[in-house]
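Lecture 7 notes: from sequence to structure.
We start with the chain below.
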Amino acid sequence: MNTKGSDQPLMEDRNALLENAFIEEYLRSQGCSLEQLHMLPKKLRKKLMTAASNYASLKLEEIESRAHFVEEIHDSTSSRE
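Predicted structure tokens for the same chain:
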């Protein structure tokens, strides 16, 4: 199995990178950045990170669902040939 200097498979690392990108995207949409989080009050920081994590989870689920859908279409098309 291909690893990247850890016990995590490379695919999990890619998912983590994508998840972080979605978290940053959400924070930017709220006028904030990861670097600015430490300057916010703890309550607001937690609220933003919870919302950002939920956003990232939904986006990752959307990508996974689309991949499965494309795979089903491909399998369906292949079986007709």
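Points to note: The mean pLDDT is 86. Residues 42-80 form the longest helix (39 residues).
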